[in-house]
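Could you please consider the sequence and fold appended to this message?
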Amino acid sequence: MNECGRGTGPVTGCHTGLMRLASILVLCACSAACGQSAPAAEAHPAPAATPAPEEATSPRAETPAATPAPTEAQADDTPRVRALVKLIILGTFPDELADAAQEGLEDELQVEVERIDGLELPESAYYPPRRRYRADRLLEFLNEHLSGEPATTRVLGLTSVDISTTKGPHRDWGVFGLGELGGRSCVISTFRLRRRARSPEHFEFRIVTTAIHEVGHTLGLEHCTEPACIMRDAEGSIRTVDTGDGHMGPDCRAELDRESPQTLPVSVDDG
C-alpha cells in the first residue's frame, strides 16, 4: 500500500491529490469571498433641517382698509338747483320786494333766479268791466318768454295791478296770484296782499310766501292741508297766508324732492 509521505517510492498520485485538494480549498474560499455581498451600509435617517432662527421683528402698525372711491355723485360737489326761475317785473314793482321774493325763492325752493325788469303789461290781458288784468292771459304772455328755454326753466311775473281769474261760478275772481300746476308760469300781485298789512315786514312776508306758493305749483306741488304749510289753499282769505309759517311742511317737502329734484347745475355768471 502506498502511504502518502513515507518511503522513497513514487509519490505522484499523493502529490496530485494534495494539489487538487488545495485547488478545491482555494476555489471554495474564492467562491465564498466572491459570493458574499458586501454588508449594506447602515441607513441613518437624514437629520431634520434645523429651522432658521426667527428674525426679530418690530411690531408693525396695521394697514388701514382701503377707502372706497367716491361715487360720481359724491365726487361732484357742483351746487345744484331744481330750476331756473325768471323773475319778470310787469309794469312797476318795488325793488326791495322783488329782492325779498328772489331771496325767499332761492332759500325755500332751492332754485336759481334771474331778474328781468321793466316789461309792459300786455293790453290783451286787460279786463275793462272790472278794470283789472286777467291772470290767465298774463300767464299766456309770460309763457312767450320761455320759448327756446329748457324744460327746467320757470317764469314768475310780479305786478302791482289787480289780477283775476275764473273760479267755479265766479267769472272774474280777484286773486293774490295764479300758477300753472305742473306748468311753467305763474304771477302774483301786491294789490290784495297790501290790504290791512300790519307793517312793511308783514307785507313783505305776504309777498314772499305767495311767490313761493305759486312757483311751488309750477314745480308740481298741489294745495295741501298740512298745518301752517306754505302750500295751503288761501280759499280767498288773507288769513290763511298770515297764519302760515312761510315754509313747506314735511309732506310737501318730500313731494317737491320727488317732483323736482335738485339736478340742475348752478349757472356761472361771467360778469
